[in-house]
Here is the input.
Amino acid sequence: MRIGKYDVSTPTVVYSGVLLALLIIAPIILMSRLSAIRESWHRNTIMDAQVLGGAYCEPGIIACKQMIASEPNKIAPRLHLGCLLAVTGQYAEAGDEFTRVQDWKAATDDEKSLAMTGAACAKCRDGAAGGKPKNLPEAERLLKKALEFKETPDALAAMALVKSWTSGPGGTDVQTYIQKALAATPAPAPALLQELYRLNGVNLSSRHKLIEAGNAFGSVKVLDPTNKLVEEMGRLTALASITEPGISPAERRASIQKIVVDIEKFGSLKIEALLAIGHAWHAFKNDPDYLGPKGPFEKACETFKSIQEGYPRDLRAYRNHAGCLEERIAILSSELTAIVTGLNGESPRRNPWYVAKEFTPALGGENAPYSVILPQPEQERLRQINDLLRSQDLIWERALEVADATPEEKANAQLRYVSCLRRRYYLSPWLKNIKRDESWKPIPDMPDEITLNLALKVSSEAARIDTTGRGSYLLALMAIEKGELTVARNALIESAKRGFKSPEQATLLEQLTRPVKMTNAGPAVAERQFGAITLLRAAFDSPLGTASLNNLKVTINGKDVLATTLGSQVLYVPNDTEMSGGGHVVKFTAPEPLGASLTFPTFTYLFDKAPPTCTFEPNGGTVKGDVVFFIKIEDPSGVDWQSLSAGINSTTSGTGVSITSQLIRDGRYAHSLLSIKIKIGDIVLRSPVLLTGVSTLPSGDYKLWLDVKDLAGNKIKQEKLFSVK
Amino acid sequence: MFVLEISLSKSCFLAGVTDVTELIHSLVKVLVVCVIIVACFWFFKNRTRASIEQGDKSMSVTSFPEGSYTVNTAITSLSALKTGDYVAYRIPTDASNLHIARVIGIEGNRVEVTPKEVRVNGAPYDLRFPTTTWTIPETKVPRGCAFLLTDDPTAGVDSKQLGPIPFAAIAGTIQPAR
Here is the structure.
């Protein structure tokens, strides 16, 4: 083929065509890919700056500027530049760079929104100190603008963060923005998303949504595994969340398991973590397997026990462990059909003082409840209650030995210890039939006396340091059990003084502080004139029992006498000095419950040493044969008519006169005296006593005689001579 | 390429090639060689290698036995990735080596790992990790990042230690041996 003066072959033409085409196409392709090539050229530099930061930032900034210079219409380099300037602390420049984007027509709404968000962030960071942002109103304005362009996740997240500084992290508007930001697609940038989750955690915590808060903090940790601060917050929230009500058992178990695995990571908070685990296991109390072998109850107890061993000085583990057992005791007690008084905190009734004075004898007599044969499940419950109470005993005993506690805490521990001992004391009679070995011999347990003494000792200590008055009240109850009513009364008064109030206390206080009453005194009014032998006596009713009557005083005519106290009675037999005739004044003085003395009304008694006086009418001399003697017998203490004997005897012999020696015997007429209408057997009741002969007395000399005693035992024998003519 | 062409042409002239046909032939040959070189460059530009060292248990031995694997670096955006893909990535402390892990979620995905299952956007995904000692609460993957996990949580360095991995650190996708 000939082209011009050149003779060329066909292949040459083809090759030339190909070459020409390549020379034309290659520059076109190159020119069209120039932007991508440039971007590719700078891409790694910018990405390294964004991802690695530090020394990579400066080359990144230069690359961005070069890209902007060559392609001013592209927005991405401007956004990258703004970010890198902000990373290097050039907030004002970064803000300017971001703000410029809104004026570029080529920018999309997404880009404008991101740019305004960047500008707002730069504003907040500019001049910020101590972790507190600055220029919040300006930042909020910029973010509003960003949201007007488009509600991007970044803009929403940034707005939530800014709002959290103005209206608090728990604010409703904050919550709204958080929800929107988390729901928006795709997601904020890593650092912003981290902050958003952290804020969400705080927001949820403030609304007591601890599980969700824990998850939010967990998400922060997921986004930045090196964040130790949030890790701590997350742990604390996780701790709080495992005891949160309403959580499903499976979730709770999983959370507990997770904390158990990470327990060593809690460091100084390990004890808090263990306590939370204990509480969390305890929260399974409504589960059917709660009490099963290796069940939550056992695990809770084991956890609390492990704290007691690891941190013996911290009282909380003891308290929680005991609380766990206490709840179980309460459940078992409520299931009991046998009425074990005092077990559920009601008034103690075991002491006879209560039984006799105030309450129904609940124990049912001498043999009950020992003789009661309880059904097997009931026995098992009682045994379990006792075992739980014993465990509680040990916990409190140990707690009081080793724990560092404030006086209030110590008093509280002592009170719980006493409460436990007290219930063991009440339960003890019921266990006598249950706690037996195969040969039906009682299994030895702590004797009641020791339990009671221990309870009294601990409650005394508690009463001393407890300021609420509850300690004194418990001391009073234990003292009542022990029969030390004076101690009980004083303790009750003290508890009232310290402000403790309960209906039971008021009743007891009223009973123990009421005054001593004299129920009767002797001799009776009619017997207060007496003679040789007598007994002065008085019976008292004291709220503090007979023990308080030791200080009872008896005075006669103002002088103290040594009286004998026997039970609720005081007895005294007057001596010779005090038995002189005439009136004597007796006074009883009893100790009053509040310490003062109480004097009872005095009475006077007359001591009679004189025999009855007898006057005769006619008084001897010469009388007629049908004479009737009127004999007046008088005595201040009364005549013992049954002792009266009288008669008429002839003193001259050989007169043929009928001699009757005794007309009255032991207060009865021994003969009929017709002239004065007296029949044999008539009783002599009063003075004057009539006496005459059985028939008309013949002339002669006679003797009228009379024997009589007064009611005081004074005896008199009188004779009167007379002549009949 | 142009520089190479010109230099080759120059070398032809210097070599005393005066015939136009011969010159054109030479230039065409040079251009074809250049095109082949460029094509090879573009081909290998999108390919790199990642290796599983002996004793490395970070990935399932069944899927990734010891050896070297080709990494497809042609991915240009995160949207090209999906949950379950294997990717090679660099970590800041060891920029010279590529590590292999599985994509759990990309930007905007909500990922959650429990002892029972892996959930992405609330839906269970057919993946399971021995998570007796760790779990991931439902977390949104930030913009520009992917959440990567190795098969063995006790080996390898992945999002558990680093958090979400930026797209810039992801070299490309990788195909398992089986």
